[in-house]
């Protein structure tokens, strides 16, 4: 909403299947449900989104992320997260929104576009980490961190990870990925978070290539290099699947974070301008 010309954020909660989940509702205009990545939160998407005039950004913090509860351990999945988003949208009376997200958020947007009831007007898939198969090889490092958190105390798990082959490769080729993963060892509920990482890393959006090819709304796919978790090749391939897609390559966070944020916001702005 707006107060005195300044956009402010409403932070609230929604109950889904008895689980308490937090969300942000910011701005006025076309509803844009924009989801964070695995291990991320509302701040991740708020930074990348910036202020887009005429757009209402809504972000649910998925189960086990930030201030949202975990709920049953065996219920953690992309399908569950997608159902939670639909319940939030129902509470907010949102229909025909733009759906989007970063990494895991992109997978959720894709699932909702095909399997959900929200009838999206457009899609934004940023730095996709999944195509159409479960447990993609780029997500194996998340499962590795999850297994370590389930097997050791966080300090020991962190040292084992940093001495391993995966961390060495990330240190050389994708330092931003490494920084995110190292931060996971500081979570307040390490075993619960380790289970979440393993379950999501081995999951998939539940959408086939053929189903994705039938999505006719405008689609923006954003990708960048220097990223082993979110391969640029995935973004390019995904953009080629949709009949009405635009692909945008931006500067990697590992190269220049300020340019990454500015170019991400500019890509969104241009896409929203074309929609309008």
From TrEMBL:
Q: Which UniProt keywords apply?
A: Hydrolase
As recorded in UniProt, coiled-coil segments are: none
Recorded hits in InterPro entries, A to Z, give:
AB_hydrolase_1 (IPR000073), AB_hydrolase_fold (IPR029058), AB_hydrolase_sf (IPR050266)
Where the record annotates domain AB hydrolase-1, the positions are: 31-250
One GO CC term, this protein: membrane
User: Could you tell me the superkingdom of the organism this chain comes from?
Assistant: Bacteria
Recorded hits in Pfam families, A to Z, give: Abhydrolase_1
Identify a single GO molecular function assigned to this protein.
hydrolase activity
PANTHER family xrefs: AB HYDROLASE SUPERFAMILY PROTEIN YCLE, MONOACYLGLYCEROL LIPASE
Q: What is this protein called?
A: Alpha/beta hydrolase
Species name for this entry?
Mesorhizobium denitrificans
């Amino acid at each position: 909403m707006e107060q005195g010309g300044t956009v402010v954020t409403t932070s609230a909660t929604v109950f889904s299947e008895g689980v308490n989940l937090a969300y942000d509702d910011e701005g006025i205009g076309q509803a844009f449900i924009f989801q964070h990545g695995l291990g991320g939160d509302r701040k991740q998407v708020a930074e990348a989104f910036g202020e887009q005039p005429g757009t209402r950004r809504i972000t649910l913090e998925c189960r086990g992320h930030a201030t949202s509860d975990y709920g049953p351990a065996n219920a953690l999945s992309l399908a569950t997260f997608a159902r939670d988003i639909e319940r939030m949208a129902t509470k907010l009376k949102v229909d025909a929104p733009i759906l989007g997200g970063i990494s895991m958020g992109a997978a959720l947007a894709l699932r909702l576009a095909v399997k959900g009831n929200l009838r999206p007007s457009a899609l934004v898939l940023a730095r996709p980490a999944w195509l159409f198969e479960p447990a993609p090889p780029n997500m194996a490092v998340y499962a590795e961190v999850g297994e370590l958190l389930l097997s050791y105390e966080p300090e020991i798990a962190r040292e084992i990870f940093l001495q391993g082959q995966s961390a060495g490769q990330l240190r050389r080729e994708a330092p931003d990925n490494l920084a995110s993963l190292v931060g996971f060892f500081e979570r307040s509920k390490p075993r619960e978070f380790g289970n979440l990482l393993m379950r999501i890393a081995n999951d998939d959006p539940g959408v086939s290539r053929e189903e994705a090819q039938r999505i006719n709304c405008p689609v923006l796919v954003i990708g960048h290099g220097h990223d082993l978790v979110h391969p640029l090749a995935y973004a390019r391939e995904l953009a080629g699947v949709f009949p009405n897609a635009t692909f945008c390559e931006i500067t990697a966070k590992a190269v220049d974070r300020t340019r990454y944020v500015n170019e991400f916001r500019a890509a969104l702005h241009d896409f929203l301008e074309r929609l309008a």
